[in-house]
TrEMBL record:
Keyword Cytoplasm: no
Name of protein: Zn(2)-C6 fungal-type domain-containing protein
GO MF term set: DNA-binding transcription factor activity, RNA polymerase II-specific; transcription cis-regulatory region binding; zinc ion binding
Annotated localization: Nucleus
Natural source organism: Penicillium malachiteum
Cellular component terms per the entry's GO annotation: nucleus
Organism lineage: Eukaryota, Fungi, Dikarya, Ascomycota, Pezizomycotina
Length: 468
């Protein structure tokens, strides 16, 4: 097998600079010593105001001082794994039209980073090219996501996004009618579903539910084959599904509940437990459990009867589950998700319709315990290094903990605001800004003496907030 090298990710046509060109550039610099260097990574806010930007990522100093959402310039990953003698130019020549090279390149270098924890460990960048050869729907899907990412997923940039998306949706139906779905088609279904939650111009109740269920059905078919649970692509797909499901499960009503996990799916999760995953790290166990917690909470909030035995089992499972890695950061992440799951379980039990008819268990925790879980989540998140890649994974625990803060926790509230602003600047996903708006509304009601649970509040106001 040929060796692989770490090389700078460049286009297919390599260019050289002659000695004369180098000398000319040096002389130009000496002739204009006071000419200001053009900023490479200035945020869009500073560029529009024609101000010098300090280029701090994800939030520059000017935007932080002004208290505005910094629209930072996305950094490309410095290095990509590339097969010797193969460049992106030659790879594109093997992909069927209608690929738009600039949008595909943008995905490979920048937009694909929102799919992973660490940009340097990104199976959705260069490795994705091989799947484009078998799925035209994936080509259109990636082009749609690249356009959306360039426009910060805002409604102002939605026309081109929706056109590419419409092409992808029409093609995916044809591709899925084949005998066995291709990996490219499966990836297109996943990305189309996630994009439904990310786009800012979608109706409030849209979160890609049909695509979530479609992903599960396709994955179960592919995992039914012997040994399929060891397939790295299917493991990555299952990881995406687990992270996606635990983020949306609370918004599934009693009629939408997804079927129990298949044997192949369970085997795949078992296989993944001790392995680092680019999308969810070492959190496959807690994500799987949170999906179950979310489905139960969503059901009882929608009016389904409570199951005291299941509640006890879910609580015990959350309390006993430990991180699959001894790494300190993974342990902090696991603890944050554990606290989030416990708060969601307790608050859902408190606020669900059937609690009016059933008595709460005598061992049910009091308010002080729930508030302490919220403080522990914020402490664990603050204990992560400022440059930790795991921050992007913790938006949902951050929301759950932030929604518990009272009037005396003004400093903690400001820290939560700043963390969501950082998440928006580093991912460009509008849900992080919407989270701040929702928290401000909840905090105001808390300050006025009202008992508010963020999930109940969103359901009452017919809104959905997907943080994944």
């Amino acid at each position: 097998m040929g060796r692989t090298f770490n090389v700078r990710f460049v286009g297919g046509n390599y260019s050289t600079i002659s000695a004369k060109e180098t000398e000319w550039k040096k002389s130009r610099a000496m002739d204009h010593p006071n000419r200001r260097r053009k900023s490479r990574f200035a945020c869009l806010n500073c560029k529009e105001r024609h101000l010098k930007c300090d280029e701090t990522f994800p939030v520059c100093l000017r935007c932080k001082q002004r208290g505005v959402n910094c629209r930072s310039t996305f950094r490309s990953s410095q290095w990509q794994i590339e097969i010797p003698g193969v460049t992106i130019g030659s790879e594109l020549s093997n992909i069927p039209s209608p690929v738009k090279n600039h949008l595909l390149r943008y995905w490979l270098e920048k937009a694909s980073q929102i799919m992973v924890i660490d940009p340097e460990v990104n199976p959705f960048s260069f490795e994705i090219l091989k799947y484009l050869r078998t799925s035209q729907s994936l080509i259109y899907t990636i082009q749609s996501l690249s356009l959306a990412h360039q426009g910060f997923f805002s409604s102002a940039s939605s026309e081109g996004v929706l056109q590419e998306r419409a092409h992808a949706l029409s093609l995916i139906q044809t591709e899925l009618q084949q005998e066995a779905p291709t990996y490219g088609s499966l990836l297109a279904v996943i990305l189309l579903g996630l994009c439904s939650a990310w786009l800012d111009n979608q109706r409030d109740l849209e979160f890609g539910k049909e695509h979530l269920m479609g992903t599960r059905a396709i994955v179960d078919i592919l995992l039914a084959k012997p040994g399929a649970e060891k397939d790295p692509f299917l493991q990555q797909t299952v990881a995406i599904y687990l992270g996606w499901e635990q983020a949306v499960a609370f918004f599934l009503n009693a009629n939408d509940q997804i079927v129990p996990y298949s044997e192949g799916f369970s085997r795949c999760v078992q296989e993944m437990r001790s392995q680092y995953n680019a999308t969810i790290g070492y959190s496959s166990d807690i994500m799987l459990l949170l999906g179950n917690v979310g489905r139960y909470c969503g059901a009882i909030m929608d009016g389904a009867p409570r199951d005291i035995v299941l509640e006890g089992f879910l609580e015990h499972s959350l309390l006993q589950l430990d991180s699959a890695s001894s790494d300190t950061q993974s342990h902090l992440v696991n603890n944050s998700f554990r606290g989030h799951g416990l708060i969601m379980l307790y608050r859902s039990i408190q606020h669900c319709p059937s609690s009016i008819l059933l008595e709460l268990p005598t061992e049910y925790p009091d308010e002080c315990v729930i508030k302490q879980y919220a403080k522990d989540i914020l402490h664990d998140i603050s204990s992560l290094p400022a440059n930790s890649c795991y921050h992007s994974l913790l938006s949902l625990p951050l929301l759950t903990a932030g929604a518990e803060l009272d009037l005396v926790s003004s400093c903690e509230r400001q820290q939560v605001r700043e963390r969501f602003q950082n998440l928006f600047s580093s991912t460009r996903l509008p849900a992080n800004i919407r989270a701040i708006t929702i928290l401000e509304e909840i905090w105001e009601m808390h300050d006025n003496g009202n008992d508010v649970f963020w999930l109940s509040y969103l359901l009452t106001t017919s809104r959905v907030l997907i943080l994944c």
